[in-house]
Amino acid sequence: MKKLTVISGKGGTGKTTVTANLAALADNLILADCDVDAPNMHLLMKPKVIEAEVFKGAKVAVKDQLKCIECGLCKELCNFKAITSDFKVDEIRCEGCGLCVAKCPSDALKLELEETGDLYYSQTKFAPMVHAKLKIGAENSGKLVSQVKEKAESLAQQEEKELLLIDGSPGIGCPVIASINGVDSVLVVTEPTKSGLADLKRVLKTVKYFNLPAVVAINKYDLNQEISLEIESFCRQNQVKIVGKLPFSKVIVEAMQQGELVVESAPESKVTTAIKELWEKVSCDLKLKG
């Protein structure tokens, strides 16, 4: 089984759109949406949920009122002001550090896992899909990403799939690191803007730190040929292969408005041809059989 993660340096580059269209072209795969903070893949893939489970990824202090002697030590020690004036735990402020639990003289406090998201196993018209959604304001998105990825890897092995295609998060934070950990290749989708180039450099530096092979696709490359050439020059100087240059096209917008993928709705369009060429290069690099 080969594992490919698609990421971007910033939001809005078209990362998820590219990933979804690659999923439509690929064979024998499992799809994983590891952008748990702001998942969008389900909007394009229209998955039918088969299984759902609660994700408990954070701890919060819970007080046993009968044991509490209201000494006020927990309120005094808490750096997050999570203990109220009447010695109750404010779950929103609590960071689950455990200091109050360790120091409570009457053992009235303990840490408990709280529900911070949901994990789904679904079926799409192209492939099975593992995805999740973190609750608003919840933390530990990196841990949820790891769970999505682990479940997807397990399913891919059980069903003898050839490819695990992962839609990662934008940026370089913990969710991104969790989504690229242990994969065979990273596809970075960028755009021809100054911020796109700056973020591409940060992302490639992160990928290089983990000693992972990376390739680049420039989306909407023809909107700013000058910066596209800058991106190509940077990649060439750093020995990073550019596997795709996708043109700007209204047919992508029209397809999304209809809830469709452009490779299906406009199979003869220039952008579909470019996406197919991108997939051919990526699948060749991964040595996929399909």
TrEMBL record:
Gene Ontology terms, MF aspect: iron-sulfur cluster binding; metal ion binding
Keyword set, alphabetical order: Iron, Iron-sulfur, Metal-binding
Domain of life: Bacteria
Coiled coil: none
One Pfam family of this chain: CbiA
InterPro entries (UniProt xref): 4Fe4S_Fe-S-bd, 4Fe4S_Fe_S_CS, CobQ/CobB/MinD/ParA_Nub-bd_dom, P-loop_NTPase
PANTHER family registered for this protein in UniProt: 4FE-4S CLUSTER CONTAINING PARA FAMILY ATPASE PROTEIN (PTHR43534:SF1), MIND SUPERFAMILY P-LOOP ATPASE CONTAINING AN INSERTED FERREDOXIN DOMAIN (PTHR43534)
Name assigned to this protein: (4Fe-4S)-binding protein
Annotated organism of origin: Orenia metallireducens
Lineage of the species this protein comes from: Bacteria, Bacillati, Bacillota, Clostridia, Halanaerobiales
